[in-house]
Amino acid sequence: MSAVPDLAGRLRDLLRERSIVHGDFTLASGRHATFYIDARRTTMAGEGLAVVGALGLARLDARGWTPALVGGLTLGADPVAYAIAAAAWAQGRRLDAFTVRKQPKAHGTGQRIEGCFAPGATTVVVEDVITTGQSATEAIAAVVAAGGRVLGVLAVVDREEGGRAALERAGHAVEVLVTATELGLR
Question: 3-179 sits in which CATH class?
Fold first, then answer.
């Protein structure tokens, strides 16, 4: 058995142990839900960073995506992008990260995109959890407006609430590491 399937199972376990909370929640989309996936509790943990980085990089490779950069809308995308960039470096490959601010900063250079971004770069937009696809859509718009080229979207978790389909209808290829069904939530 290869290491990637073992890591996929470990990611599901980490998300179940650390990130899933049951109750009554209002999501960023405004929707109400009976479960919340705080993927940051996994993606910001040492083991979670290692697992997400390795799986994310393997998924980019499987898809044939060779971006220069990975990144997305802060805060959920940040550890995902950094983990994938670090996993690439550990394999002797160059893949840098960037962060899209929710608003351009009002001081310094006033940039909306921070980090290693440069116009003309090929990118993959990353996301921790896709619900409606709005965060990824916002990040894509910022990258394109700044002169970047988006190969697709990679998410750690798909809540399976229409976000993936919305992104695909808009012409963006989407890869996910785990779905709500695989986590036993649907």
Answer: alpha beta
